[in-house]
Design brief:
The chain is an alpha/beta fold and about 500 residues long. It is built from 16 helices and 21 strands. β13 and β14 form a beta hairpin. It starts with a strand and ends in a 7-residue tail after the last helix.
Amino acid sequence: MPAYIGAIDQGTTSTRFIIFDRRGRIVASAQKEHRQIYPQPGWVEHDPEEIRQNTCEVIAKAMQQANFEARDLAAIGITNQRETTVVWNRKTGEALCNAIVWQDTRVSAYIAAYAADGGQDRFRQQTGLPLATYFSGLKIRWILENVPRARPQAESGDVLFGNIDTYLIWKLTGGTSGGLHVTDVTNASRTQMLNLESLQWDRQMLVAFGIPRAMLPQVASSSEIYGEITLTPVAGVPLAGDLGDQQAALVGQTCFQPGQAKNTYGTGCFLLLNTGKKPVQSHHGLLTTVAYKLGDAPAHYALEGSIAVTGALVQWLRDNLGLIDSSSKIEALARQVDDNGGVYFVPAFSGLFAPYWKANARGVVAGLTAYANKSHLARAVLEATAYQTREVVEAMEKDSGIRLAVLRADGGMTDNDLLMQFQADILAREVVRPAIRETTALGAACAAGLAVGFFSGIEDLCEQWSLEKTWTPIMPTEQREALYGQWKKAVDRTFDWAD
């Protein structure tokens, strides 16, 4: 058995390839950003071919960095930005249009039309999801209705759909020369077309959305050998793991027991709570989703709170306002003041996700006075992430009946000590960061490793998880609740802004 395992981590802003050893330590890594395309307000796109090229490039770079050949890798897993929708031609391999990103709101009119007949939760029982612009299904419908000749080609099976995982798997396993058209249960559960009980495509949903079954991938488990990669320099390596990015982080954080939860601080924030082998329907604005399915074992489910804009708000402060020249400098800017100066920033750029699900909300900055300066704004930007996380934690505890004792945190923003301390303060509970922070890529590697026997089982993975840092709450209760109360007032101001 080779001594190393690889993971493709295809995210919203970049693609990485990471090679791990048996202890989960990083041996080599390469990363490359891709363009964010904004054709008009509310639309967000990626170029699928650019992502494919970047994937090939980072694989080659990491392999060269480690001086490895294909035989050095036991398997490769893949994790991906979820809900981002690609439709491509089976015969040519070319995408019909740019990928429609999960943040895109162009399907808002569909949402309103469906909700008018049965409400926002009309499909929640079978799919676990409310009607929202977030998910893949209605993005597919938009493509079928707006790209010339897309629908007849889809009905004939000449046009294929996939989230980014499916698109890359197809490309990496041969493409037009026999590429595998497959996804896993976690990614499938984010399309709003998968039945949570059967874990197969739901015929009623396909009819309701007008999606031809012929264009959909086969649904597999998150950990099994799908096939071999044909791409040099990893040709012949089994592709054996597939998880949506947030589920991959749950696996990477070894949250295998019901009641364990993690929060990933990235472009957005995504808090997942393992609820065990039965889906738990949410009554407080959360999503019911598949957490993972490892081989032939029963699937585990999760409650998820999805926050659209967290790290992306720091990027916005950098790119749109120019207040910082790199995202890492926001902490130093925010530390120049002792508090937020009464300023609150609610980043509802594409509406509010959990627990509100208000597509017509828009961002606001509230509490401005002549006293406020750029440091107060920077602090308000960081605090927005912590407030939104508390809202999701509160909803999660109501739905599950479980009080979280500790929050496992991962993602790039966990490098920010000011944010993490404020998160512990506003939650009034400990926040912990694992020793291995690349938990999303690690989760994909774990799934692939389990499939090929690189890891003996989940107990093996749990033994490897270790703690690096803990933040303990120190803020007085009265101050905590006063700050949170003002945040809630600011959130109220965002509602119903867009017509």
